[in-house]
Input
Amino acid sequence: MYYRTKMSTVAKNNVVRMHFSVKDDEGAQLYEGHLVYLHGHGNLLAAVERELTGMRIGERKKFRLSPEEGYGNYNEELLGVLPYEVFPTDQRIDVGMVFELHTKERVLLLQIKELRENGVLVDANHPLAGKHLNFDVTIEGVRPASAIEMEHGHAHDFLEKPCEDT
Output
């Protein structure tokens, strides 16, 4: 059951349930499914939130994001060779695997691109960097966020009535 009130428009501080798919320019399906999120709190890419703002329950919209609006341009400087010693010794490493590298500032996700004699070629670019993203979105429900959801900055569930406790 969907929450239908005068608040049934996607706007800041509303919890939104949507079905969406994302494809690249070659038509490859990158994602398809349902999502519940708190609108206007940075839980989605800014360009996606901008496109969804003002949509109503039942409305469908298709839009395309440039790499700059999505996950950025592909940056060759984020390729590098790391010594084998930085990888877990109890786990086999293969091309395509993703590992976390913890730095003082943040956690980087590194995809293994190539195994070389002198080390492992890794890529710290987001897997969708450099790609145009083609969205197809249908808004399935909208409800006002609870105070606790706004405090936490994310949706807790998509119930007919917002939950007030953790």
